[in-house]
Amino acid sequence: MSRQNTNLSRETIAAAALEIADKEGFDAVSMRRIAQELNVGTMSLYYYVKTKDDLIAVMDDALLGEALLPKVPKGWQQAMTEIAKHTHALFLRHPWALVSMLSAPPGLNAMRHMEQCLEALAETHMTNSEKLALLATVDDFVFGHALRETANDTAIDTEFAAAQLATGAFPRIAKIFAKGRIENRKDRFEEGLQALLNGLPYAATVTESAGKKSKKKKDRH
C-alpha cells in the first residue's frame, strides 16, 4: 500500500527500500519503485539519495541498525554471543542482504556495530590483532550459517542415492542415514557459536588471564 504525506529523508527512503526488498526481492528495488511506495515523484528522491550506490549504502546502514544491542552485556563471551545472535537474526529477516549488501561501504551503524564488538572484548587481554581475528571468525560463522539456513533445500534424487548406497561404496553414509533423513538440530547455531568461542586459542588466554587476576585479588586478602 502506498504511504500518503510521507516526510522524505534518507531514513524513510531506506525503510521503503527494505520493505520492497523483503516482499519482492532486492532486484525490485529502484528509485522509481521506492517513489511509488512513498507516493512521491521519483526526482524528489534524488535530493536525499544521489545514486544506486548511495541507496545501497543507506539500506545497509538501516540494516546494521537492527544488529545493535541496547546495551553490551558483561563478559566477553556473553556479549559476543548476543551480538552474533542479533546479527544472525538480521540476516534471517532479510536473507537477500547476504549477497546484495556486500558492496556497501561501512556507514555510521557499521561503525557502531564494530564499536560494540570491541567493547565486548575491551576487558580481555587479547591483542588488537587477536580481537580483529576473533571478530572476523565470528562474522564468517554467522554469515555462513545464515547463508545455509536461508538457502532452499537441495532436491535429492532418492532413487539415485539409494542405488549408490546399495553398492556398498558408501558404508558410513549408509549407516548414518539407515533410519532415514536426520533433521538439523534447532539450536545448532548457538551450539556451534559456543563451540567456536570456547575453541579459539584466544579463549584459553582470556580465561587464564582472568583466573590469574582473580587469584591476585585473593592473595591480597
Uncertain spans: 1-5, 207-215
Integer-rounded radius of gyration:
23 Å
Tell me, rounded to a whole number, the average pLDDT: 87
Number of helices: 12
- Helix content bin: 55-70%
Number of strands: 0
For the sheet with most strands, the description reads:
none
Secondary-structure class? mainly alpha
Distance between the termini: 68 Å
What is the helix/strand order?
A: HHHHHHHHHHHH
* Shape descriptor: flat
The proportion of residues in beta strands is: under 5%
Structure, described:
The N and C termini lie far apart (68 Å). This protein has twelve helices and no strands. 66% of the residues lie in helices and 0% in strands. The chain is flat. With 221 residues, it is an all-alpha fold. Mean pLDDT is 87; it is low at 1-5 and 207-215. Helix 1 packs across helix 4 (52-65), helix 4 (52-65) packs parallel to helix 7 (108-120) and helix 5 (76-93) runs parallel beside helix 8.
Outline of the structure:
The protein is an all-alpha fold.
SSE layout and pairings?
Blueprint: H1 10-24, H2 31-38, H3 42-45, H4 52-65, H5 76-93, H6 97-100, H7 108-120, H8 128-150, H9 158-166, H10 171-176, H11 188-199, H12 201-220
